[in-house]
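Query protein
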Amino acid sequence: IVFPLADSPQLRNGAAAAAAAVARALPPETVCHLQPPNSLHVSVFFVSHPSDVRTDTVHRAPHAVVGSECLAPSAEAVALEREAVRGTLEKAKRRPKMQVERVAFSRSGTLLLLFVEEGGKVRNLRNDLREALPGAPAKQPNILHASLLRLLSPTTLPADAVERVDRVCDEWTQRLRGQAWEPEYLWFVLEREFATVSGERTRFRLQ
């Protein structure tokens, strides 16, 4: 369950430009993955997770066993989860108000666009989704961020490359910090590959 940046072209384009600038600052031999601009998103809630696969979160179904033939949820389970999300959003009070805080390169090799929020509406939404989907994984997003780029190279970046990347992050933080974002939509996505938001999706308009 995600907030897509695709519905905010100015923010999406700025985030994609920041990622491209960081990619240019990396050593030529570095292998990285740039998240496609229309796939950029902030994760709100995991109905399932590769490390903790769930197939029916409304009824607290037993965890799926990796390697079994039962990793995919049934059409009935997905329909129930979708309706649980719909019902939760109908009770939510207004869309959240967020602002860009900074662009940061994490130790894990992921470039992040970090947000802060006024009023705790996302926190409340996450709590409400936990109640509506009690069988969802224990591991859930706890910050507001969009992943822009991931290093795929196994080696650690040299110190001069880290300095270049940090400078680019600082430059784009100055450009993007304070940019307001009120997500207009929330997507419920049946992902084919984790963190790609590629797959069947239901688009819910936020109040």
Summary: Residues 18 and 187 are 24 Å apart (CA to CA). Helices lie at 9-25, 75-91, 121-132, 159-176. The mean pLDDT is 91. The first strand starts at residue 2 and ends at 4.
